[in-house]
Amino acid sequence: MPLARRARRTIDIWPGFVDALATLVMVIVFVLMIFVLAQYFLGQALSGRQKALDRLSQEMAALSESLNMQKAANAALQAELVSSKADKERVEAWAAGLGQDVTALMALKDELEARIKELDKTVGAKDGELVSERKLSEEARAQAALLSRQMEAMKQELARISAALDASETRDKEQKAQIADLGKRLNVALAGKVEELQKYRSEFFGRLRKVLGERPGIRIEGDRFVFQSELLFDSGSAELGLDGIEQVRNIAATLKDIAKTMPKGVNWVLRVDGHTDKRPITSAKFPSNWELSTARATTVLRTLAASGVPKDRLAAAGFGEFQPLDTADTDAAFARNRRIEIRFDQR
């Protein structure tokens, strides 16, 4: 009988279950705390980067305004310099004419003085004639003295104009140096914007490569993401197939995700370019490869817009067969030239 009662006893697992449940709750609370802290620090980092980019945009606007003001001041200075040079040329021409008159009068004076000396040496000359000659000589001397004073005044005026021109040229050099410095600063700021856009372009292409996978007919060439047309469209058609629609929607989802992290100062645009091979199209709907390439690019653009990409960030263009990647007359070359290119660029 005692053996039978011991066999009916059951094992009590309730305390172990309570301990395991408590441990699981503590782990979940700890993970949630780590997640909240990570979100907080990430938000702080993004906010700091946004403030820095806004400050850079304000500095660029101030630099552009200063550059415009400097250009306006330089234009006014150039006009003043041209006017001063014209005045200098007129004064120099007048001075040259006065110099010729003075030379002529001096020659006349010398001639009269020579005649006076001859008359003084002549015995028995008439007193009336001698007085007349002397009077003529005195008038010539007076005119020569007047012209000399006028020449001196002209020289002083020329000196003043030359000094003004030198000062204007000095100011012009200073203005050019300031403009050159502003141009350098503006170029540095623009280079920063281009570098920032390049960073987002690289991130966009990297994520897009992960989403689309290593599929044949999809490749990155420089700043372009290239799809072979056969992956998206049937031959001679501008309607996306089911697989093509899925590929374009993946692109839209990746772009929207990237756009959330872009600051407002990055003025980006996604451009879709359509290309065909050089063989003529025989469809009544598309008179030439231009229309086909443009229609395909527009179809991709509309699908992106329908998937949530802002319409003001989209552009489409059709190039027909006129920008081939391979000029050979082979099926492989034709297939390579039939493509859709997506560019992440600055507007």
UniProtKB/TrEMBL annotation:
Question: Transmembrane stretches, by residue range?
Answer: 21-42
Q: Which PROSITE patterns match?
A: OMPA_2
Q: Where is the signal peptide?
A: none
The record's InterPro entries line, in alphabetical order, gives:
Bact_OuterMem_StrucFunc, OmpA-like, OmpA-like_sf
Q: Name one Pfam family in it.
A: OmpA
GO cellular component, alphabetical, reads: membrane
Which of UniProt's keywords are assigned here? Cell projection, Cilium, Coiled coil, Flagellum, Membrane, Transmembrane, Transmembrane helix
User: According to the lineage, what is the superkingdom?
Assistant: Bacteria
**Annotated coiled-coil segments of the chain:** 53-171
Q: Which residues belong to any copy of the OmpA-like domain?
A: 221-347
In its UniProt entry, what is this protein called? Flagellar motor protein MotB
Originating species? Paramagnetospirillum kuznetsovii
